[in-house]
Design goal:
Helix content is 32%, strand content 34%. The protein has 93 residues and is of the alpha+beta class. The protein has one domain. It has a 5-stranded mixed sheet. β3 and β4 form a beta hairpin. The radius of gyration is 13 Å and the shape is globular.
Length: 93
């Protein structure tokens, strides 16, 4: 069974500010070569960042949390060069 994503107007709007749509964020998180990084949050909620590639070859950083069984994207953006290098270097290993 494929993981469920928790989308609402708030997180869709936030992603759109970074020119990312849910249909890009989901495969980036589910990318079998994705790199998962734990990040600290001052909200008290555990968050992670996935560096993954979309079907079009775009490398995204997707910050998300788990809410029950669902993946709740918080934000997503085109990975900066440093993170793209990290992703591409790990993918070659």
């Amino acid at each position: 069974m494929a993981p469920q994503f928790d989308w609402d107007d708030a997180n869709r709007r936030h992603l759109s500010r970074h020119h990312v749509i849910p249909e890009e964020a989901e495969p980036a998180v589910l990318d079998p070569h994705a790199i998962l990084l734990a990040i600290e949050s001052d909200t008290g909620e555990d968050r992670a960042k996935a560096l993954g590639m979309t079907a079009s070859g775009r490398i995204l950083a997707v910050v998300f949390t788990l809410r029950g069984e669902a993946i709740r994207p918080i934000t997503a953006y085109a990975a900066p060069p440093r993170l793209q290098t990290l992703y591409l270097g790990r993918r070659r290993v």
